[in-house]
Automatic annotation (TrEMBL):
PROSITE patterns: N6_MTASE
Keyword Cytoplasm: yes
Keyword annotations: Cytoplasm, Methyltransferase, rRNA processing, Transferase
UniProt GO molecular function: N-methyltransferase activity; nucleic acid binding; S-adenosylmethionine-dependent methyltransferase activity
TM segment ranges: none
Secretion signal span: none
Annotated GO biological process: methylation; rRNA processing
Protein name: 16S rRNA (Guanine1207-N2)-methyltransferase
Amino acid sequence: MPFDLGSLRRHPDVEGPGLEASDAADRLILDEATTLIREAGAGEIVVVDDSYGALALAAADAGARSVRVHQDLVTGERALAENAARLGLEGEVRTVPLGPELVADARLVLMRLPRSLDRLDEVSQLVAAHAHPEVVVVAGGRIKHMSLAMNDVLGGGFGRLDVSRARQKSRVLLAREPRPSTEPGWPRSTRHDDLGLTVVAHGGVFAGTGVDIGTRFLLDQLGDAVPDAAAAVDLACGTGVVASWLARTRPGLRVTATDRSASAAASARLTAEANGVADRVHVTRADGLEELADASERLIVLNPPFHSDAALSTGIAAHLFADAARVLAPGGELWCVWNSHLGYRPLLERVVGRTRQIARNPKFTVTASRRAA
């Protein structure tokens, strides 16, 4: 009996009508790789960026053993674990950090194509350098999120690239004949003299080694943010620009930087090290502020993500605002930058507390929301 992809859940990620734990791209990847999955030996299959476990668990159900898996988001990692336990497959999949150990001697790599070409380049370079010489990469996605540039990226690391027929608005790329890249590896870094910061980034982290204009606008205002605070939190920290800037400009400040992305958390650690503030910046990969106690922080800084899925942008921000409200001490403040057209101020007033506008330009608004005493 074919594996029932409909039995998978997204929990603890957002669930609701129209939000599925698998899609047509997962089915096409599995169909294109059916024979390869059956032929692979124990430990020879690797799965990368499998949103909620569809690829890894379907492969395990088909007989694959000791499947190595890497998911960037901690919520996806937890969803895979829950799905595996419910289906009795937890002993056949194991989570491995992104690095040589993940892909060493792999003969088959199943992956969802990331929207970021840098992320694809980092994974492609890793596989080409460390997988078995006969490895086959079966990478698929929804056509609306694919581009011809993806062919070029995979073509840079592999000598042969085949493209499947389209099915249900999905397509698969199959890469063979790995050839290690001579291009600069990952992570990469850039010095920003105007900010006095070096930014280090793994592939796929928002803004890469740059500093996006919203974050720059926020940094311009942070000098007056709860100036007597002994600690601060950089929520959804990305590459850790805000965390390192705060630690560098306030020598006595301790900063907690948190992000649900493994690549972001790793980048934030490296950024703190590059700027000599790693001793005062604690980086954690977590779902929001789950590791921080109620009413424990006087200053939280946030540039809420909205770019990953516009349809869910308000829900993502609301979740982060509610988390900040829980963790803020009475009288503590959430300093937030957001695209002005999103109109978050009423939501911040309702969820966090009295909100004042700190600055506004044609594109962005910076606000400070105070938790009631």
